[in-house]
Amino acid sequence: MINNMVPISSRLIESMMNLGLTKKESEAYNALVSNGVMTAEDISRTIGVQYPIVYRTLQSLKEKGWIDSTADRPKKYRAKHPKTAANIAGKQIIESVNESIEIIDRLLTPHYNENQEILTQEIWILRGYERVIQKISDMGKKECQSVNAKITGPIDDDTFNEIFTCIRKGIPIKVKIMGPPIINVHPALESYISIERPLFEGKCRHSSFGPHEASEKEEFLENVHSSRFISIHLLFGKKEAIWINIPYKDNKVVKDKVWANWILDPEYISIIMEDI
């Protein structure tokens, strides 16, 4: 009775399964390597698996290119050389993987732009000051003719300058500020940023924040609520925008509560364009 078996380790089983074999197929192939030519009945006795299951297992091994069989009855089976069989299986897997990559790329890549950002979703929510600043920086590196902005309330110098200095240098920036009349603009911005203050032209104006002297920013900030909420609309060209919401407490930005909408929706952007 043929029942010799080369000891088969779990590592060998795992390696063969990585090349597309099942555990039973690995055991049947190992039996053929150990004993040479065998019938299905021989293999059934050797690996302790019922004949019908072994027969289906051998058919699968043949289809996968690991064994050959004779045409006589009962059929006899012989294992192909392990390196030959493994190379064939490996090439089939590589071809299958490459085909899958090609299909995925062809069908799904059109949903992304050249910066690998998805296009199908038109409004994204960003949370946290650092993430919002990073997004503005990413947007500011792209090609666009101009940046337009509107700030709805009193903003501090540091936040103002951090937002606008992370935009690519040289892009014309036009800012409409509905808050404090004086911003100490960072020197790097002075040559290409322009600021309008519709509510604060002249020496003294009234706003929803109360009366103030245009030349006294500190005095102005004392007249507004130290805890407040401002919004900033940033429009990059005509294709994308970001709407930032910044809470203040004791005149300091609460950075972990900052959030923003990154907007690609054309209708929403057209509304922002009219407002700015």
What would a concise description of this structure say?
Pfam families: TrmB. The protein has 276 residues and is an alpha+beta fold.
Oligomer: single chain
| SS class | alpha+beta
Fold-level CATH name of the largest domain: Endonuclease, Chain A
Q: How helical, in percent, are the residues?
A: 25-40%
Q: Estimate the global geometry from the Cα principal axes.
A: rod-shaped
Rg (C-alpha, Å): 35 Å
Give the tally of structural domains.
2
Number of helices: 9
Q: In sequence order, what are the helices and strands, one letter per element? A: HHEHHEEHEHEHEEEEHEEEEH
N-to-C span: 90 Å
- Which CATH C-level class of the largest domain is it? Alpha Beta
The low-confidence parts are 202-215
Major sheet summary line: 8 strands, mixed
CATH structural architecture of the largest domain: 2-Layer Sandwich
Total number of strands = 13
> What amount of the residues lies in strands?
15-25%
* Residue-averaged pLDDT: 84
Task: Give the CATH H-level superfamily of the largest domain.
Answer: Endonuclease Chain A
Organism: Methanosalsum zhilinae (strain DSM 4017 / NBRC 107636 / OCM 62 / WeN5) (Methanohalophilus zhilinae)
Protein name: Transcriptional regulator, TrmB
